[in-house]
Amino acid sequence: MLDELVELIRTAVVRLPTDVRAALEHALEAEAEELPKLQLRMMLENAACAEEHRIPLCQDTGVPVFFLRGEWEPGMEHLLAEAVRRATEEVPLRPCIVHPLSRSNTGDNTGVHVPVVHRLGHEEPRSITFMPKGAGSENCSAAALLSPSAGAEEIAEFVAEVVRRAGAKPCPPVVLGVGVGGTLEHAALLSKLALLQPLGSANSEPELAELEERILSRVNALGTGAMGFGGRSTCLGVHLLAAHCHTASLPVAVSVQCWAHRRATLVERAGRLEVVQP
Amino acid sequence: MELELPLERREVGRLRAGDVLCLSGTLVTARDRAHARALELGCAPVELKSIYHCGPLVRRARGGWEVVSAGPTTSARMEGYIGSMLELFGTTVVVGKGGFSEKARETLRDRCVYLAFTGGAGALAARAVRRVVEVHWLELGMPEALWVLEVKSFGPLVVAMDARGGSLYHR
Ligand code: SF4
Protein backbone atom coordinates (compact mmCIF):
# COMPACT_ATOMS: atom_id res chain seq x y z
CA MET A 1 0.00 0.00 0.00
CA LEU A 2 2.84 2.38 0.88
CA ASP A 3 4.42 1.91 -2.55
CA GLU A 4 1.15 2.69 -4.26
CA LEU A 5 0.69 5.82 -2.15
CA VAL A 6 4.17 7.07 -3.02
CA GLU A 7 3.37 6.41 -6.68
CA LEU A 8 0.13 8.36 -6.28
CA ILE A 9 2.04 11.36 -4.93
CA ARG A 10 4.70 11.07 -7.62
CA THR A 11 2.14 10.95 -10.43
CA ALA A 12 0.34 13.99 -9.07
CA VAL A 13 3.39 16.22 -8.80
CA VAL A 14 5.05 15.04 -12.02
CA ARG A 15 2.23 14.66 -14.53
CA LEU A 16 -0.14 17.48 -15.32
CA PRO A 17 -3.62 15.93 -15.73
CA THR A 18 -4.93 15.60 -19.28
CA ASP A 19 -7.91 17.87 -18.64
CA VAL A 20 -5.62 20.73 -17.58
CA ARG A 21 -3.35 20.21 -20.56
CA ALA A 22 -6.31 20.26 -22.92
CA ALA A 23 -7.58 23.46 -21.29
CA LEU A 24 -4.15 25.11 -21.65
CA GLU A 25 -3.94 24.08 -25.31
CA HIS A 26 -7.38 25.49 -25.88
CA ALA A 27 -6.40 28.74 -24.14
CA LEU A 28 -3.29 28.96 -26.31
CA GLU A 29 -5.37 28.62 -29.47
CA ALA A 30 -7.81 31.27 -28.31
CA GLU A 31 -5.10 33.74 -27.28
CA ALA A 32 -4.15 36.54 -29.64
CA GLU A 33 -1.31 38.37 -27.88
CA GLU A 34 2.33 37.30 -27.95
CA LEU A 35 3.38 37.52 -24.28
CA PRO A 36 0.48 35.53 -22.82
CA LYS A 37 0.91 33.01 -25.64
CA LEU A 38 4.56 32.61 -24.68
CA GLN A 39 3.54 31.91 -21.07
CA LEU A 40 0.97 29.29 -22.09
CA ARG A 41 3.49 27.62 -24.38
CA MET A 42 6.02 27.52 -21.53
CA MET A 43 3.44 25.90 -19.24
CA LEU A 44 2.76 23.15 -21.78
CA GLU A 45 6.45 22.69 -22.52
CA ASN A 46 7.19 22.52 -18.81
CA ALA A 47 4.54 19.84 -18.31
CA ALA A 48 6.07 17.75 -21.08
CA CYS A 49 9.58 18.26 -19.68
CA ALA A 50 8.54 17.24 -16.15
CA GLU A 51 6.82 14.12 -17.41
CA GLU A 52 9.75 13.12 -19.58
CA HIS A 53 12.28 13.49 -16.77
CA ARG A 54 9.91 12.31 -14.01
CA ILE A 55 10.53 15.43 -11.91
CA PRO A 56 8.02 17.71 -10.14
CA LEU A 57 6.65 20.17 -12.68
CA CYS A 58 6.61 22.94 -10.08
CA GLN A 59 9.12 23.27 -7.25
CA ASP A 60 6.29 24.13 -4.88
CA THR A 61 5.05 20.61 -4.25
CA GLY A 62 2.58 22.16 -1.85
CA VAL A 63 0.68 21.18 1.24
CA PRO A 64 -0.19 17.50 0.91
CA VAL A 65 -3.98 17.09 0.87
CA PHE A 66 -5.77 13.74 0.63
CA PHE A 67 -9.44 12.98 0.02
CA LEU A 68 -10.57 9.52 1.08
CA ARG A 69 -13.77 8.04 -0.33
CA GLY A 70 -15.26 4.83 1.01
CA GLU A 71 -14.41 2.96 4.19
CA TRP A 72 -10.67 3.14 5.06
CA GLU A 73 -9.11 1.78 8.22
CA PRO A 74 -8.67 4.21 11.15
CA GLY A 75 -4.86 4.06 10.86
CA MET A 76 -4.83 5.46 7.33
CA GLU A 77 -3.68 8.88 8.52
CA HIS A 78 -0.40 7.36 9.73
CA LEU A 79 0.12 5.50 6.49
CA LEU A 80 -0.51 8.66 4.47
CA ALA A 81 2.00 10.58 6.58
CA GLU A 82 4.53 7.81 6.05
CA ALA A 83 3.91 7.95 2.30
CA VAL A 84 4.47 11.72 2.33
CA ARG A 85 7.76 11.26 4.20
CA ARG A 86 8.94 8.66 1.72
CA ALA A 87 7.82 10.70 -1.27
CA THR A 88 9.70 13.72 0.11
CA GLU A 89 12.89 11.64 -0.12
CA GLU A 90 12.20 9.63 -3.22
CA VAL A 91 10.30 11.81 -5.69
CA PRO A 92 11.60 14.19 -4.23
CA LEU A 93 9.22 16.80 -2.83
CA ARG A 94 10.34 20.17 -1.50
CA PRO A 95 9.99 20.31 2.29
CA CYS A 96 7.36 23.03 2.57
CA ILE A 97 5.80 22.47 5.98
CA VAL A 98 6.74 24.72 8.90
CA HIS A 99 5.42 25.54 12.36
CA PRO A 100 2.93 28.40 11.91
CA LEU A 101 4.70 30.74 14.33
CA SER A 102 8.32 29.67 14.75
CA ARG A 103 8.41 28.93 10.97
CA SER A 104 10.83 26.08 11.59
CA ASN A 105 10.67 23.50 8.80
CA THR A 106 9.81 19.92 9.76
CA GLY A 107 11.89 18.73 6.81
CA ASP A 108 9.57 15.92 5.74
CA ASN A 109 6.34 17.66 4.73
CA THR A 110 4.42 16.33 7.72
CA GLY A 111 3.36 18.09 10.91
CA VAL A 112 0.38 18.62 13.17
CA HIS A 113 -2.67 17.87 10.96
CA VAL A 114 -0.37 17.60 7.94
CA PRO A 115 -0.92 15.84 5.61
CA VAL A 116 -4.44 17.21 5.52
CA VAL A 117 -6.82 14.26 5.29
CA HIS A 118 -10.50 14.60 4.41
CA ARG A 119 -12.67 11.52 4.80
CA LEU A 120 -15.69 11.74 2.55
CA GLY A 121 -18.76 9.53 2.30
CA HIS A 122 -18.94 5.81 1.86
CA GLU A 123 -19.26 5.41 -1.86
CA GLU A 124 -17.72 2.56 -3.86
CA PRO A 125 -15.16 2.04 -5.28
CA ARG A 126 -12.85 3.12 -2.49
CA SER A 127 -10.39 5.77 -3.59
CA ILE A 128 -7.74 8.18 -2.35
CA THR A 129 -7.22 11.45 -4.19
CA PHE A 130 -4.07 13.49 -3.70
CA MET A 131 -4.11 17.20 -4.51
CA PRO A 132 -0.99 19.13 -3.46
CA LYS A 133 -1.84 22.77 -2.81
CA GLY A 134 0.76 25.39 -3.67
CA ALA A 135 0.99 28.54 -1.57
CA GLY A 136 1.12 31.09 -4.40
CA SER A 137 -2.43 30.30 -5.35
CA GLU A 138 -3.72 29.31 -1.92
CA ASN A 139 -2.64 32.69 -0.53
CA CYS A 140 -5.20 34.23 -2.89
CA SER A 141 -8.10 32.03 -1.71
CA ALA A 142 -10.81 33.76 0.31
CA ALA A 143 -14.11 33.32 2.07
CA ALA A 144 -16.92 35.68 2.96
CA LEU A 145 -20.16 35.54 4.85
CA LEU A 146 -22.38 37.38 2.41
CA SER A 147 -25.74 38.83 3.15
CA PRO A 148 -28.48 36.20 2.69
CA SER A 149 -30.12 38.40 0.10
CA ALA A 150 -26.95 38.61 -1.98
CA GLY A 151 -27.91 36.10 -4.67
CA ALA A 152 -26.00 34.89 -7.71
CA GLU A 153 -24.87 38.31 -8.94
CA GLU A 154 -23.15 39.25 -5.70
CA ILE A 155 -21.54 35.84 -5.40
CA ALA A 156 -20.10 36.27 -8.89
CA GLU A 157 -19.00 39.79 -7.95
CA PHE A 158 -17.22 38.53 -4.83
CA VAL A 159 -15.36 35.78 -6.71
CA ALA A 160 -14.35 38.14 -9.52
CA GLU A 161 -13.00 40.61 -6.97
CA VAL A 162 -10.92 37.86 -5.34
CA VAL A 163 -9.37 37.05 -8.72
CA ARG A 164 -8.89 40.71 -9.66
CA ARG A 165 -7.01 41.39 -6.43
CA ALA A 166 -4.90 38.25 -6.91
CA GLY A 167 -3.49 39.62 -10.16
CA ALA A 168 -0.56 37.55 -11.39
CA LYS A 169 0.23 36.10 -7.96
CA PRO A 170 -1.58 32.73 -8.28
CA CYS A 171 0.07 31.84 -11.63
CA PRO A 172 -2.91 32.42 -13.90
CA PRO A 173 -4.69 30.98 -15.81
CA VAL A 174 -6.30 29.81 -12.59
CA VAL A 175 -8.94 27.22 -11.84
CA LEU A 176 -11.57 28.26 -9.31
CA GLY A 177 -13.31 26.04 -6.80
CA VAL A 178 -16.31 27.76 -5.26
CA GLY A 179 -18.24 26.54 -2.23
CA VAL A 180 -21.60 28.14 -1.55
CA GLY A 181 -23.72 27.60 1.55
CA GLY A 182 -23.20 25.43 4.62
CA THR A 183 -21.12 27.02 7.36
CA LEU A 184 -17.79 28.78 6.98
CA GLU A 185 -15.67 25.61 7.18
CA HIS A 186 -18.07 23.62 5.04
CA ALA A 187 -18.07 26.22 2.28
CA ALA A 188 -14.26 26.10 2.37
CA LEU A 189 -14.23 22.30 2.10
CA LEU A 190 -16.78 22.42 -0.74
CA SER A 191 -14.52 24.86 -2.58
CA LYS A 192 -11.70 22.29 -2.44
CA LEU A 193 -13.97 19.41 -3.44
CA ALA A 194 -15.13 21.50 -6.37
CA LEU A 195 -11.53 21.57 -7.60
CA LEU A 196 -11.61 17.79 -7.89
CA GLN A 197 -14.23 17.95 -10.67
CA PRO A 198 -12.97 17.28 -14.19
CA LEU A 199 -12.21 20.60 -15.89
CA GLY A 200 -14.93 21.53 -18.32
CA SER A 201 -17.67 19.65 -16.49
CA ALA A 202 -20.66 21.61 -15.22
CA ASN A 203 -22.71 21.38 -12.05
CA SER A 204 -25.74 19.16 -12.65
CA GLU A 205 -28.12 21.79 -11.28
CA PRO A 206 -28.85 24.28 -14.08
CA GLU A 207 -28.99 27.25 -11.72
CA LEU A 208 -25.54 26.45 -10.33
CA ALA A 209 -24.13 25.67 -13.77
CA GLU A 210 -25.34 29.08 -14.88
CA LEU A 211 -23.53 30.69 -11.95
CA GLU A 212 -20.31 28.83 -12.86
CA GLU A 213 -20.60 30.24 -16.39
CA ARG A 214 -21.33 33.71 -15.13
CA ILE A 215 -18.27 33.67 -12.87
CA LEU A 216 -16.06 32.31 -15.66
CA SER A 217 -17.00 35.04 -18.11
CA ARG A 218 -16.65 37.79 -15.51
CA VAL A 219 -13.22 36.56 -14.49
CA ASN A 220 -12.01 36.21 -18.06
CA ALA A 221 -13.17 39.75 -18.75
CA LEU A 222 -10.74 41.05 -16.08
CA GLY A 223 -7.88 40.93 -18.57
CA THR A 224 -5.28 39.67 -16.07
CA GLY A 225 -4.27 36.93 -18.48
CA ALA A 226 -1.56 34.29 -18.35
CA MET A 227 0.99 35.29 -15.68
CA GLY A 228 -0.55 38.76 -15.60
CA PHE A 229 0.48 39.67 -19.15
CA GLY A 230 -3.04 40.39 -20.35
CA GLY A 231 -5.25 38.59 -22.80
CA ARG A 232 -8.17 36.24 -22.55
CA SER A 233 -6.88 33.41 -20.38
CA THR A 234 -7.27 34.41 -16.76
CA CYS A 235 -9.27 31.32 -15.81
CA LEU A 236 -9.46 27.80 -17.23
CA GLY A 237 -12.60 26.75 -15.40
CA VAL A 238 -14.96 27.38 -12.49
CA HIS A 239 -16.46 24.56 -10.44
CA LEU A 240 -19.08 25.24 -7.86
CA LEU A 241 -20.59 23.05 -5.17
CA ALA A 242 -23.45 24.11 -2.95
CA ALA A 243 -25.00 23.13 0.35
CA HIS A 244 -28.10 24.40 2.09
CA CYS A 245 -27.42 26.99 4.75
CA HIS A 246 -28.98 29.02 7.56
CA THR A 247 -31.81 31.33 6.55
CA ALA A 248 -29.82 34.26 7.90
CA SER A 249 -26.50 33.58 6.15
CA LEU A 250 -24.73 32.90 2.85
CA PRO A 251 -21.18 31.60 3.26
CA VAL A 252 -19.07 31.65 0.09
CA ALA A 253 -15.54 30.30 -0.19
CA VAL A 254 -13.28 30.38 -3.20
CA SER A 255 -10.20 28.21 -3.55
CA VAL A 256 -7.90 29.72 -6.12
CA GLN A 257 -5.86 27.07 -7.89
CA CYS A 258 -2.97 27.73 -10.25
CA TRP A 259 -2.62 26.34 -13.79
CA ALA A 260 -0.50 23.61 -12.14
CA HIS A 261 -3.75 22.00 -11.06
CA ARG A 262 -2.20 18.73 -9.94
CA ARG A 263 -4.23 15.78 -8.81
CA ALA A 264 -4.26 12.02 -9.02
CA THR A 265 -6.43 9.28 -7.56
CA LEU A 266 -5.70 5.79 -6.33
CA VAL A 267 -8.75 3.69 -7.11
CA GLU A 268 -9.45 0.22 -5.79
CA ARG A 269 -10.98 -2.05 -8.41
CA ALA A 270 -11.44 -5.78 -7.80
CA GLY A 271 -8.96 -5.59 -4.93
CA ARG A 272 -6.28 -3.91 -7.09
CA LEU A 273 -5.03 -0.36 -6.66
CA GLU A 274 -4.53 1.77 -9.71
CA VAL A 275 -3.46 5.43 -10.15
CA VAL A 276 -5.75 7.43 -12.43
CA GLN A 277 -5.87 11.10 -13.42
CA PRO A 278 -8.65 13.20 -14.91
CA MET B 1 18.61 38.64 -26.28
CA GLU B 2 21.34 36.89 -24.22
CA LEU B 3 22.74 38.78 -21.25
CA GLU B 4 25.59 37.98 -18.90
CA LEU B 5 25.16 38.55 -15.14
CA PRO B 6 25.75 40.71 -13.21
CA LEU B 7 24.18 43.64 -15.06
CA GLU B 8 25.39 47.18 -14.46
CA ARG B 9 22.83 49.95 -13.93
CA ARG B 10 23.71 51.34 -17.34
CA GLU B 11 22.77 48.04 -19.05
CA VAL B 12 19.60 47.72 -16.99
CA GLY B 13 18.49 51.16 -18.15
CA ARG B 14 18.44 49.98 -21.76
CA LEU B 15 15.84 47.28 -21.15
CA ARG B 16 12.18 47.99 -21.87
CA ALA B 17 9.07 46.39 -20.45
CA GLY B 18 8.02 43.72 -22.92
CA ASP B 19 11.56 42.73 -23.96
CA VAL B 20 12.28 39.03 -23.79
CA LEU B 21 15.73 37.78 -22.84
CA CYS B 22 17.85 34.98 -21.41
CA LEU B 23 20.39 35.22 -18.60
CA SER B 24 23.67 33.44 -17.94
CA GLY B 25 25.86 33.76 -14.88
CA THR B 26 25.27 33.70 -11.13
CA LEU B 27 21.81 34.08 -9.61
CA VAL B 28 21.13 33.87 -5.89
CA THR B 29 17.78 32.61 -4.63
CA ALA B 30 16.21 34.58 -1.80
CA ARG B 31 12.74 34.58 -0.28
CA ASP B 32 11.10 36.28 2.69
CA ARG B 33 13.36 34.95 5.39
CA ALA B 34 16.64 35.47 3.54
CA HIS B 35 15.64 39.06 2.74
CA ALA B 36 14.72 39.70 6.35
CA ARG B 37 17.97 38.21 7.63
CA ALA B 38 20.22 39.98 5.12
CA LEU B 39 18.67 43.33 5.97
CA GLU B 40 18.81 42.68 9.70
CA LEU B 41 22.50 41.75 9.50
CA GLY B 42 23.23 44.48 6.97
CA CYS B 43 25.31 42.00 5.02
CA ALA B 44 25.14 38.65 3.29
CA PRO B 45 27.63 35.83 2.72
CA VAL B 46 27.36 36.32 -1.04
CA GLU B 47 26.89 39.19 -3.50
CA LEU B 48 23.19 39.97 -4.01
CA LYS B 49 23.28 41.94 -7.26
CA SER B 50 21.18 39.36 -9.08
CA ILE B 51 18.36 37.90 -7.04
CA TYR B 52 16.00 35.11 -7.92
CA HIS B 53 12.75 34.94 -5.94
CA CYS B 54 12.72 31.18 -5.77
CA GLY B 55 12.61 28.38 -3.24
CA PRO B 56 14.16 25.57 -5.26
CA LEU B 57 13.62 21.86 -4.84
CA VAL B 58 17.14 20.52 -4.42
CA ARG B 59 18.61 17.09 -3.71
CA ARG B 60 22.00 15.75 -2.72
CA ALA B 61 23.92 14.32 -5.64
CA ARG B 62 27.51 13.25 -6.15
CA GLY B 63 28.77 14.91 -2.98
CA GLY B 64 27.09 18.20 -3.91
CA TRP B 65 23.63 19.46 -4.73
CA GLU B 66 21.40 19.10 -7.74
CA VAL B 67 18.48 21.39 -8.54
CA VAL B 68 15.41 19.32 -9.42
CA SER B 69 12.77 22.01 -9.93
CA ALA B 70 13.21 25.74 -9.54
CA GLY B 71 10.51 28.05 -10.83
CA PRO B 72 9.92 31.51 -9.35
CA THR B 73 7.95 32.32 -6.21
CA THR B 74 5.48 35.19 -5.76
CA SER B 75 7.51 38.41 -5.65
CA ALA B 76 4.80 40.47 -3.96
CA ARG B 77 5.82 38.93 -0.63
CA MET B 78 9.28 40.50 -0.93
CA GLU B 79 8.10 43.93 -2.01
CA GLY B 80 8.57 45.48 1.41
CA TYR B 81 12.27 44.64 1.32
CA ILE B 82 13.13 45.64 -2.20
CA GLY B 83 14.01 49.30 -1.62
CA SER B 84 16.49 48.42 1.12
CA MET B 85 17.97 45.61 -0.97
CA LEU B 86 18.69 48.05 -3.77
CA GLU B 87 20.31 50.49 -1.31
CA LEU B 88 22.35 48.00 0.62
CA PHE B 89 23.32 45.38 -1.95
CA GLY B 90 23.12 47.31 -5.21
CA THR B 91 20.73 44.75 -6.67
CA THR B 92 20.20 45.39 -10.38
CA VAL B 93 18.22 42.30 -11.42
CA VAL B 94 15.30 40.64 -9.69
CA VAL B 95 13.78 37.54 -11.26
CA GLY B 96 10.41 36.37 -9.97
CA LYS B 97 6.77 36.04 -10.83
CA GLY B 98 3.72 38.22 -10.45
CA GLY B 99 5.65 41.48 -10.09
CA PHE B 100 5.37 44.26 -7.54
CA SER B 101 2.71 46.88 -6.95
CA GLU B 102 2.43 50.23 -8.68
CA LYS B 103 4.54 51.90 -5.95
CA ALA B 104 7.61 49.80 -6.77
CA ARG B 105 7.89 51.39 -10.22
CA GLU B 106 9.59 54.36 -8.58
CA THR B 107 11.70 52.17 -6.28
CA LEU B 108 13.15 50.37 -9.28
CA ARG B 109 13.72 53.53 -11.32
CA ASP B 110 17.28 53.91 -12.69
CA ARG B 111 18.49 51.06 -10.56
CA CYS B 112 16.91 47.70 -11.15
CA VAL B 113 14.90 45.64 -13.58
CA TYR B 114 12.26 43.06 -12.74
CA LEU B 115 12.20 39.96 -14.93
CA ALA B 116 9.41 37.41 -14.90
CA PHE B 117 9.80 33.71 -15.49
CA THR B 118 6.70 31.58 -16.07
CA GLY B 119 5.29 30.62 -12.68
CA GLY B 120 5.13 26.89 -12.07
CA ALA B 121 7.63 26.13 -14.83
CA GLY B 122 10.01 24.59 -12.30
CA ALA B 123 11.16 21.73 -14.51
CA LEU B 124 12.21 24.03 -17.36
CA ALA B 125 13.94 26.44 -14.99
CA ALA B 126 15.95 23.63 -13.43
CA ARG B 127 17.30 22.68 -16.85
CA ALA B 128 18.92 26.09 -17.09
CA VAL B 129 20.80 25.58 -13.82
CA ARG B 130 24.28 24.32 -14.62
CA ARG B 131 25.48 23.94 -11.06
CA VAL B 132 24.83 24.79 -7.44
CA VAL B 133 27.87 26.86 -6.54
CA GLU B 134 27.14 26.98 -2.81
CA VAL B 135 24.36 27.33 -0.29
CA HIS B 136 24.05 29.61 2.75
CA TRP B 137 21.56 29.80 5.59
CA LEU B 138 20.28 26.29 4.97
CA GLU B 139 19.06 26.28 8.57
CA LEU B 140 16.18 28.46 7.33
CA GLY B 141 14.92 25.41 5.43
CA MET B 142 15.45 24.35 1.82
CA PRO B 143 13.04 26.89 0.26
CA GLU B 144 14.30 29.85 2.30
CA ALA B 145 18.07 29.32 1.99
CA LEU B 146 20.39 31.36 -0.24
CA TRP B 147 21.18 29.03 -3.15
CA VAL B 148 23.94 30.33 -5.37
CA LEU B 149 23.15 29.05 -8.85
CA GLU B 150 25.12 29.16 -12.05
CA VAL B 151 22.59 29.45 -14.87
CA LYS B 152 23.02 29.17 -18.63
CA SER B 153 20.54 30.77 -21.01
CA PHE B 154 17.87 30.97 -18.33
CA GLY B 155 14.69 32.11 -20.02
CA PRO B 156 12.71 33.24 -21.81
CA LEU B 157 12.43 35.96 -19.17
CA VAL B 158 10.06 38.85 -19.77
CA VAL B 159 11.10 42.34 -18.72
CA ALA B 160 7.93 42.94 -16.74
CA MET B 161 9.00 46.11 -14.87
CA ASP B 162 11.81 48.17 -16.32
CA ALA B 163 14.04 50.83 -14.75
CA ARG B 164 12.14 53.67 -16.46
CA GLY B 165 8.83 53.20 -14.76
CA GLY B 166 7.46 50.85 -17.40
CA SER B 167 5.41 47.92 -16.17
CA LEU B 168 3.42 45.23 -17.91
CA TYR B 169 1.32 44.76 -14.78
CA HIS B 170 0.17 48.37 -14.69
CA ARG B 171 -1.09 49.29 -18.13
S1 SF4 C 1 1.05 29.09 -7.61
FE1 SF4 C 1 1.05 26.97 -8.35
S2 SF4 C 1 2.20 26.98 -10.28
FE2 SF4 C 1 2.61 28.90 -9.20
S3 SF4 C 1 4.51 28.47 -8.10
FE3 SF4 C 1 2.83 28.09 -6.68
S4 SF4 C 1 2.34 25.90 -6.90
FE4 SF4 C 1 3.62 26.46 -8.63
Measured distance between first and last alpha carbons of chain B: 24 Å
Q: Give the count of helical stretches of chain B.
A: 5
Q: Please tell me the overall pLDDT of chain B.
A: 97
% residues in beta strands of chain A: 15-25%
Q: How many DSSP E strands of chain B?
A: 9
The oligomeric status of these chains comes to: heterodimer
Query: What is the class of chain B in the CATH system?
Result: Alpha Beta
Strand line-up across the major sheet of chain B: 2-3-6-7-9
Using only CA atoms, what is the Rg of chain A?
18 Å
Secondary-structure element order of chain B, as H and E? Answer: EHEHEEEHEHEHEE
Which structural class matches the secondary elements of chain B? Answer: alpha/beta
Biggest interface, and residues per chain?
Answer: A-B, 42 and 40 residues
Can you tell me about this structure?
Helices cover 39% and strands 21% of the residues of chain A. Chain A is an alpha+beta fold. Chain A has 2 domains: 2-16 and 57-134 and 262-276, no CATH class; 135-257. In chain A, strand 8 and strand 9 (272-276) form a beta hairpin. In chain A, helix 1 crosses helix 4, helix 2 (18-30) runs antiparallel to helix 3 (34-53) and helix 6 runs parallel beside helix 8. The longest helix of chain A is centred in the first third of the chain and has 20 residues, at 34-53. The model of chain A has no long low-confidence stretch (mean pLDDT 97). Chain B is of the alpha/beta class. Chain B has a single domain (2-161), classed as Alpha-Beta Barrel (fumarase). In chain B, a hairpin with a 2-residue loop joins strand 4 and strand 5. The relative contact order of chain B is 0.26. The model of chain B has no long low-confidence stretch (mean pLDDT 97). At the A-B interface, helix 3 of A face helix 5 and strand 9 of B.
